[in-house]
Amino acid sequence: MNARTPDTGTPDTGTPDTGTPDTGTPGTGTPDTGTPAGVPRALIVWFPDWPLVAAQLAEEIPERVPAALLEKGLVAVCSSEARAAGVVRGIRVREAQSRCPDLVTLHADPDRDSREFEPVVTALEAVLPGVQILRPGLCVIRARGAVRYYGSEEAAVGAALEAAAQLGLEARAGIADSVFAAEQAARSTTELSPLFIVKEGDSPAFLAGIPVTVLGEPRLVSLLIRLGIQTLGSLAALSPSDVRSRFGSAGFLAHACACGRDPREIVPRIPPPPQDRTITFEPGLDRVDQIAFAVRPTAEEFVERLRRQGLACTTLRVSITDDAGHRSERSWGHPHHFGAGDVVDRVRWQLQSSGTPAAARRKTSPANTSAPGARWRMTGEALGAPIIQIRIIPDAVDLLGRRGQALFGGVDERLDHGLRRLQTMLGHGSVLHPVPGGGRLLAERSLLVPWGEEAPSGTAARAGRPWPGAVPDPLPATVFPEPLPVRLLDEHSGTLQVGERGDLAAPPAWFSPGPRALRRAVVGWAGPWLLRQRWWDAEEKRQAERFQILDSENEAWLLLGEGGEWWAEARYD
Fold this sequence. Notes:
Blueprint: E1 42-46, H1 50-57, E2 67-71, E3 74-78, H2 80-84, H3 93-99, E4 104-107, H4 110-127, E5 131-135, E6 138-142, H5 143-150, H6 153-166, E7 172-176, H7 179-187, E8 195-197, H8 203-207, H9 218-226, H10 232-236, H11 240-258, E9 277-287, H12 288-308, E10 311-322, E11 327-333, H13 340-353, H14 357-363, H15 373-376, E12 378-379, E13 382-399, H16 413-426, E14 432-436, E15 446-450, H17 459-463, E16 478-490, E17 508-512, E18 520-533, E19 542-551, E20 556-562, E21 565-572
Parallel strand pairs: 2-4, 7-8
Antiparallel strand pairs: 1-6, 1-7, 2-3, 5-6, 9-13, 10-11, 10-13, 12-13, 14-15, 16-17, 16-21, 17-18, 18-19, 19-20, 20-21
Helix pairs in contact: 1-4, 4-6, 5-6, 12-13
């Protein structure tokens, strides 16, 4: 239990007296001396396995695979797929991998947890103001105001769960007379029944049968169990003065929680001020250079305001609206952080990239399905439709001090500046750089994206997945853009044949790096690695074999055989 300093003497004077006083610790007749009557009920919203969900949102691990987060060499959080395979919290990594050989592991990152939880809290605050973050993945709200607005506790919780569902997240909720009891209520829910409401005054009875292990204080819990106190009800039956004298302040707080009188006060956070900026043009502008010139002062103000708060924008969203209400919206990344010139460039590139009907149609908001293809077509620097509004929205920010140059490596500032100048002159897609992709073929394991942009959504997760049939490391240095036709022969000078299960009638003996090239002796080989893809799809299924060979010219090749023909996929230099 992450205890906060108890509120020992300041009652919540805004809560109406319900006429039902707190009768104190059940079973002892001892009056309640720590929490006044009428304490507001707490609404807990809990996102199960949040650290794992945050890693999936950050695309550092794939979804729906056995996965675990590690802390100090132990499993801290594991997915439902991993739990089904026998992985549990607290076991060592090797034991977890022995139980689940396909387990995907990643180290825990509290900063990532907080960063990914911020948009979730913002969405909750839109429907239930007054959110306090207890920790990433767990927040509490005073139920009184929400009930007054929505009419009932069930309706208030329904609004919170709907907000989470719109983000594609699973959430659970609990309501009780204290923060601690509401959290235990939320943890008592299931996927099919995500809400648990403890009736007013029933929190002590609800908590009575719960094990003391939920208190989360290892030393205190160990001592209580050795003394025979196994449940919260047993702890609540003790005298508060005896608990304080024997267990100190930590024990006294645990006793209050067990009695349903968690003295922690709900302190809603103050939402950060909005950082987005809106530029409105009246009348609308239809030239890219005019728009870029008009956007620059706002871009400078946008960057400077973040800088004064010690923040830097790393992902920017630009929304452009024309005079007919059609909207183009796109997110842009940056390898370091955005400056004012970078923001202006992104606006210019977005206007230029909407120059074809197809591009405009893809970028049109779903609510506007009339696809203004002709309206977005450009003639030189002129747009076919006047632009009336541009919004600049920071999708992701980070502390400014964290965005400095790496100790080893990193992008040279002069190189970055030169490449961006080329992009400004030639267009956003004129300068590309490779990022790791995912797939069994080498051509699929590297993607080209515009300089300064992050890989497409899902690329990192795809690259981290297991790919049965992929070639083991080390990978070849030279990958041909298109596989080269070659000849691979057996000792009888016939084309090498590979059986369905990878069996060979004869080993590879001769190799020709081209259809008409002189053949070379194969002095070493490894394989075959069988490639069996989408066998259930008659049109897209693929059945191929791969070999590594070393020829008599001391050149190593990666070969791909398919349909009785052989191709050179790459060469080891």
